[in-house]
Fold FAD-binding FR-type domain-containing protein.
Amino acid sequence: MFLCYYFSSLFYPVLLERKDRDGYMCTSKRFDKSYKIISNKEICAGYFELKIKVDAVSRYCYPGQFFMIDIPEVFLRRPISIHCIGKGTVSFLYSVVGRGTKILSEMGRSSGSVISRRGEGKDGCDEIKMLGPLGRGYGLTSNASSKFLSCVSFDSYEKKSCPKSRDISFNPVIVAGGTGIASVHFLATKLSRKGILCYGVHSKKDLLCLDKFKKMGWEIVISTEDGSKGYRGYITDVLSENLKAGDTLFACGPIPMLKKVLRIAREKNIKGFVCLEEKMACGIGNCQGCAVKINGENKLTCKDGPVFEIKDVEL
Ligand SMILES: Cc1cc2nc3c(=O)[nH]c(=O)nc-3n(C[C@H](O)[C@H](O)[C@H](O)COP(=O)(O)OP(=O)(O)OC[C@H]3O[C@@H](n4cnc5c(N)ncnc54)[C@H](O)[C@@H]3O)c2cc1C
Ligand code: FES
């Protein structure tokens, strides 16, 4: 089985990128091809989980990375984070916000009232074209992250170049806002330690993945803006009381939430990473459309990020 995966991967269009000129570690391979959609289920109103058969490509996916998804009838590909990987599969968790994600939500669904054949492949299965995995994920941002790297289980990634020790003590605190939960879920499945998930949404109907985090043994703190579950207000209102010296923060969500996370982390001198979901057009560093200020320099979210160290980010 392993040999099958290995040899089939040799024939994919591959771009090798082990270390870039700044010495940063990046994704080792990226692929631009069509895949079969296994399922595209509405898990609750307006939120979908899309599962794709990617075979060997799943071995190159790392928490915090994303794919640019080619959606029929829309001009630009849309960036969506890797939500989880299985044996030869990649899943995405996305919300329907505009035309692209609306069309995406109709792909690969042939039951109920929605019978869509957009992107139909040769054998009748829906196919989807994607470019990725792209970007630098959690812990791949700089050499300073080596302590963090040691804390992640690298079952499926860069076996040779990453340390595997799991005995460094660190306490992860994940902060997720809205669909930011998608990328941090994949991270949580790979961290060697469980910690606290601080998760903020508009209303309790927007809460996703709670069972998955509970099953993994994470403590969960919830906030809703309408007060329908947990603390009434923003998750950053209750973040300080859930943080202690030595914790490591991982945050993904809307920019206003991330700004507050950065302020709190700096006040408390806490290290960690933020994942920026800037608007993207090309996703591979060609259009310069996703520039952010990192350590006083312009960097590209798609290529240099989307995950950056808290100490470097200026929002
Ligand atoms: C690295 C990254 C990871 C992401 N991961 C997820 C995820 O896991 N789940 C999820 O639900 N959403 C995710 N997003 C946001 C998602 O890309 C947008 O919701 C989506 O592109 C909207 O497309 P649309 O056509 O439906 O909306 P429209 O508003 O019609 O999109 C128009 C244009 O704006 C861009 N755009 C719009 N909103 C965003 C946004 N918030 N971020 C980036 N580009 C945007 C689109 O790419 C497109 O070019 C991610 C964004 C980035 C940058
Ligand atoms: S999206 Fe084009 S450079 Fe980042």
Notes: The domain at 156-314 is CATH 3.40.50.80 (Rossmann fold).
